[in-house]
Amino acid sequence: MNIENTKAQMRKGVLEFCILCVLRDKEAYTSEILDTLKSAKLLVVEGTVYPLLTRLKNDGLLNYRWEESTSGPPRKYYGLTEIGKTFLTELNGTWTELSDAVNIITTNKSKKS
């Protein structure tokens, strides 16, 4: 079994949730999203994030707008739609339940009856 593959799959499983959380309070362009994820030690590459942003937009969870940049080409700023905000609220509840369950299991000392 390849541990790196398993670790990558675990990260991919929470990436959508993390991106929505990054956009919870403000719009951001892709580089800002990547920087936020990387600063949290969630290792991702542009090639993973761009298709995910497109899928989230196509699913109606994100919208975007173009803004001129003083240091290069225009930037595409992503933000949550109303549907995206509702979806994120649902995911937050699921994340709490899942996180609690995993913490119980991973910190449970073996007790033999």
Automatic annotation (TrEMBL):
All residue ranges annotated as the Transcription regulator PadR N-terminal domain in the record: 19-89
Top-rank taxon, per record: Bacteria
Family annotation (InterPro entries): Metal_resp_DNA-bind_regulator (IPR052509), Tscrpt_reg_PadR_N (IPR005149), WH-like_DNA-bd_sf (IPR036388), WH_DNA-bd_sf (IPR036390)
UniProt name for this protein: PadR family transcriptional regulator
Organism: Flavobacterium paronense
Lineage: Bacteria, Pseudomonadati, Bacteroidota, Flavobacteriia, Flavobacteriales
